[in-house]
Amino acid sequence: MSLALRAQLLLFLISLSSRMGLSRYIEVRSRFCFVNPFTVMVMCVCVCVWFVGCLDMLATDGFFTFVASRPQLACASFIIAEPSEVISLELSDVSIDCSAGDFIKMFDGWVLKGEKFPSSRDHQLPLHQRYTDYCSSPAPGSTSRSSQNVAMIFFRIQSPDSRFTLAVKKLHNPFPCNIMSQSPEGSFTMVIPHQRRNCSFSIIYPVEIRLTELSLGQAKSNELSPQRQVWSGCSGSGDYVELLGGNGVDTSKMFPVADLCFSLSGLAQMKIGCDNSVVRLVSSGNYINRVSFQYRLLEHNELPKTRENSLDNFCSVE
């Protein structure tokens, strides 16, 4: 199996909490203490700021500061939240030279190896509106709010001691859409209530996916429809679910392995031996569409054998 993308993504995603201590340190800005009247104990609270590196992953709320010790020409921080959350970003204490070519840009989603998540066909905003450029903003600070549980910030700083602080806050999202999973196993339900949009759930592992419930606006068939056999034409129905596999994060460039355009109340399962496995729900806006599923990491003996230059082989389906 080609592991190029998965290795790069896992570098960010494996053991998020423990990894944080390896790339940043903490500074206590202020500290105050008080007596708890119920326990008669002294309790202290500190206001802390994390210092981040040129390439980092942020998975918690807080204030994160970058200070350049030397020119940094290509830096990024990837921010991820729980599936039912979106991310609010705010820049402050910015000291960079925009006129000299420095920049800080926030992005609604992730960009990896030139591919964007969510893809342009799944995100409700045009691509140019997903970027927030600090140097082009008329206000002294910049804010951005993601449409899903991932966001990122790009920056280039050429002068030592230039700096900025990024405030990260997570907010509840009642109808999660376009989710990047932090875990190789779990369960989830996607609901699109009378909205014309596409929602995907991306799992950056080869997994077995079990659909436990599927409620769509139209019923056409009772079978899974593997791409290798007969393509049932669900894409013309306006309301359907498709399972995708591939070695990138852009769903528009991934390999369709099955589609479903019928209501389902029993189990249907499929193994997708790809670096990235996706459940994608497409809705016409005429109905309340819902899909529930479980997923688990494939064991080593379940993975397909490697065959060079063959996406169809390393993304084998069972």
Characterization of this structure:
One of its GO terms (biological process) is hormone-mediated signaling pathway. The chain crosses the membrane at residues 35-55. The chain is mainly β. Helices cover 7% and strands 47% of the residues. The protein has helices spanning 4-13, 16-23, 311-314, and strands at residues 25-36, 41-51, 55-58, 62-67, 72-80, 85-95, 103-107, 110-112, 115-117, 131-133, 143-145, 150-157, 163-172, 179-180, 186-193, 198-203, 207-215, 225-226, 240-246, 255-260, 268-272, 276-282, 288-297. The longest helix has 10 residues, at 4-13. The protein is elongated. Mean pLDDT is 79; it is low at 1-8, 10-29, 218-231 and 307-314.
What is the CATH architecture term of the largest domain? Sandwich
User: Helicity level, as a percent range?
Assistant: under 10%
DSSP strand (E) fraction? over 45%
**Gyration radius over CA:** 22 Å
Give the helix tally.
3
Q: What structural class results from the helix and strand content?
A: mainly beta
Largest sheet, in brief, is:
6 strands, mixed
Shape: elongated
Query: Mean pLDDT, nearest integer?
Result: 79
**What is the CATH class of the largest domain?**
Mainly Beta
- In spatial order, strands of the major sheet run 1-2-4-13-6-11
H and E order: HHEEEEEEEEEEEEEEEEEEEEEEEH
Structure summary, number of beta strands: 23
Distance between the termini: 16 Å
Q: Detail the poorly predicted runs.
A: 1-8, 10-29, 218-231, 307-314
Q: Assign the CATH topology of the largest domain.
A: Jelly Rolls
Give the CATH superfamily of the largest domain: Spermadhesin, CUB domain
Overall number of structural domains: 2
Protein name: Corticotropin-releasing factor-binding protein
Domain Corticotropin-releasing factor binding protein C-terminal: 179-303
Main location: secreted
Signal peptide: 1-23
